[in-house]
Design brief:
homodimer; 338 residues; Beta-Lactamase; Enolase-like, domain 1; 3 domains; 12 helices; DNA-binding
DNA sequence: TTTAGCACTCGCATTTCATGACTGCCATTA
DNA sequence: TAATGGCAGTCATGAAATGCGAGTGCTAAA
């Protein structure tokens, strides 16, 4: 049973532990947090909190450490989540530059998040299997290069600059894009390069410089289809005391490169200990890691970009969550403007 | 005096140490390398090599470890540097895609280098203070976006996609680029955004939607001017035994983000222990780190892109150097084709 | 000049021990 | 009856002690 006093004690323990990374003892709570109970009372309450699964003991003679269940309660009930003014100011630089690409803006914010939290942040792009091609355009820049613009059914766009070995004729570009638009519309992004292969005969027939164009498009499709996993600040983890052991770092780094893992990590549906907060961000706990994520909806569609922060369970949830919420709003605003 | 036998012993020690990361003792050399001398003889020779500065002792009862001077000799005289066929094959994927941007190709190779060597690799772009603007083009993609193409005096080009909040008129784009080309030609890239400020009154006068365009260009100029330092695979270092101490990792990571450091590191002129090999790559040693770099000349000009690999002095020099040489050649070839 | 042999050095892993920060429980108190 | 003071018990942590073994340097003999 979580009495008000136990909640009070739990909050103090989580706060202290997040701050110092050291197991918290009953004496600390009296002395440092001025709780109006004796240490013996607090010990009794801590024992109760442990029995209910909110706290853990690293070993007998240490203080208590919050369990993931404890963190979950803390995040759900005990954080207030407000964004600092100074933080908003720091971020305004990024979002004020209207001319910036949405992708760039997201990446930039990702970097800022890593810097500000000293954690690892990541972006998981729209699932390539769920998007299909709506339209392709190829705009010549000069005689040997062109921009390829691809638009998906969720109004998501991607750009890629092509550079050709030889000069390329405008007619060929037109013919080629006409064929592709005709034949590839509606194809899921993940199948594009495969389906492209089957168009080869057709292109050979109608397009003189088919080879260069073909290679260029295949390259572009591969890029567009790849699960856009991007992450940043992995090396920040060396500053986290929970990673002072190199082996832990290694295992963490190994996990990062696997995008399916990221998806799973933040898939609140399957995770028992996950939590969906009111403001939008979600939190999930796995072993001694916590993942805070925020889905950015793209033009009100189902498909979305997921902004994430990963770190040890011992993280400043209020800071991270408010940051993620704020940035999520900003990015959605940019999307709306477009 | 480096007799042939001492060289033989030195080579064996360096080989063994690179392989095992353990100080090498006289017995190992006899048993594992089958050197036709007794361990006592080898001990004498090792003492001599140490006296001349090619070897070091971590402590009395350990084996010997190569000093940086030892590595230098090793690299200069004892490596043969040939690229594996399988490596060439692995890289051919990257360079065969002609449509790829040179910048992309370089970045991709950088990643491959990191993966293949388990070291950190980096790219140092042309020095922005040494390049000046030759020409700007702004090509509309659709009503709200355009590609900005910037060409420098060393025929280096950069692209950036602009996204505007409102529709933008073609006349405005034309007027704006005309003014910029007229007024900014010859300006060093590093001064562009500053000088842009002084053009504001002029733009206000002639261009209706000057504000959006102005912001977009300033953003682009900042990007073009920034010292293009890019590096990859820093987290590989956790697999290197010399970084099993977290503190070392921290200090290493701290250094990486400083581009002036990278420049200095590979500035063979100032570094005593640096080495310029015949094939092109340079090696420098600083403390217990080694940096192998390869300058890629851009269109025969003085200005260049520098491809680098950093790691502990104990690295597989022949592998790294041959890789860097090979990739350097490939990239120069792409540049020539353009 | 090379080699065998031996004494010596020193890092490293292991053990032992003392310390102190906790807890848990019980008897006492308000 | 809930809160508290007190005390015994636990266990990580760090320091000092110990033994081991890899490797050296030196000397004397081949």
């Amino acid at each position: 049973m979580l009495t008000a006093r136990r909640v009070e004690i739990l909050k103090a323990i989580v706060d202290e532990f997040i701050d110092t990374a050291q197991p918290v003892g009953s004496k600390t709570l009296v002395e440092k947090y001025g709780l109006p109970y004796s240490s013996a009372t607090i010990r009794n309450e801590m024992a109760a909190l442990e029995a209910e699964g909110y706290l853990e003991k690293p070993h007998t003679s240490a203080g208590r450490v919050p369990s993931n269940k404890g963190y979950r309660f803390y995040v759900e009930n005990l954080t207030e989540k407000e964004v600092d003014e100074e933080v908003k100011y720091a971020l305004s630089n990024i979002f004020d530059r209207q001319s910036m690409n949405v992708e760039e803006a997201i990446r930039e914010s990702c970097k800022v998040i890593s810097d500000m939290t000293s954690l690892t942040s990541g972006i998981l792009g729209p699932d390539a299997t769920k998007q299909s091609l709506e339209h392709i355009q190829l705009i010549p820049i000069d005689k040997r290069s062109a921009v390829c613009v691809l638009i998906t059914n969720v109004a998501h766009t991607e750009h890629k600059v092509f550079n050709f070995a030889e000069e390329i004729s405008v007619e060929d570009i037109k013919k080629c894009t006409d064929i592709l638009n005709d034949r590839l519309k509606g194809t899921p992004l993940s199948d594009l390069s495969e389906k492209m292969e089957s168009l080869k005969p057709l292109l050979v027939q109608h397009v003189r410089q088919y080879e260069m164009l073909f290679d260029a498009f295949v390259g572009a499709f591969v890029k567009f289809a790849s699960d856009t996993l991007y992450f940043n600040g992995a090396s920040n983890m060396i500053y986290q005391p929970e990673f002072s052991d190199i082996e832990r770092l290694k295992s963490f780094m190994g996990k990062l490169n696997d995008s399916s893992l990221w998806r799973e990590l933040t898939d609140t549906g399957t995770r028992q200990l996950a939590l969906k907060t009111s403001k939008g961000s979600e939190v999930a706990w796995v072993d001694d890691l916590a993942v805070v994520s925020n889905d950015i909806r793209v033009n009100g569609q189902e498909d979305k970009v997921r902004l994430m922060v990963v770190g040890p369970s011992r993280m400043k949830y209020d800071k991270v969550m408010s940051l993620l919420d704020f940035i999520g709003q900003q990015i959605e605003k940019i999307y709306e403007e477009k």
